[in-house]
Amino acid sequence: MFPALSGDSMTLRARSKYVMDAKPAPRAGLTLFCSRDSLACLWTRIVLAEKDVDGARIEWVNPGKPNHDLLVLNPTLDLPTLADRETVIHPAGIINEYLDERFPHPKLSPPDPAARAKLRMALLRLERDLLPLAQRALSEKGAEGKAAKQALGEALLASQRMFPARGWFLGLDYNLADCAWAALFSQLPQLGLKISGDVQPLLRYAERLLHRPAVRKAIG
């Protein structure tokens, strides 16, 4: 299992109780520490790919072999973790909001308060419920994995009316919630979900997401 989506931000000056007087290797620009098997990490990689940040670097972390720099920067070892010069940020949701403000083009959140509130509500459900459920469906074996797959299929079917016939999740503008859905939908073949009923709206929306160049770049 991957760490739950919880955490906050800190700076490089934070001292680790596990590594005394240690400093991370010198680095410039932006580094994203990621696990290859984490949906939360994939979500953030998609956001980063949409922003097309020059010099951004992905550093892969094996959960069974902690990265020294990550241990110093973030002793909780939460993934993903973003290091931007002296700023260290986690978890995924906070990283993605930071990236959207730090690199405003293309904008992945709406300008008006009401639309931003709707986006935050959608992100809350994705972060708290759907992405962790999909992660369990991918990671767990036996009865627990089967139960997670069934629950995820039911949740997706219940969400059918929310998938737009055209455009994106909350309207005509692509946003952070679409990035999260893209991460989840990219794993549907691996999950092997069996969803009864009319799933054409879901499939058409997923197809639009997965054809975006940035999504394909992040997945590939």
UniProtKB/TrEMBL annotation:
Residues 112-220 form the GST C-terminal domain. Gene3D superfamilies: 1.20.1050.10, Glutaredoxin. InterPro entries: Glutathione-S-Trfase_C-like, Glutathione-S-Trfase_C_sf, Glutathione_S-Trfase_N, GST_Omega/HSP26, Thioredoxin-like_sf. GO terms for cellular component: cytoplasm. SUPFAM superfamilies: GST C-terminal domain-like, Thioredoxin-like. Residues 28-107 form the GST N-terminal domain. This is Stringent starvation protein A.
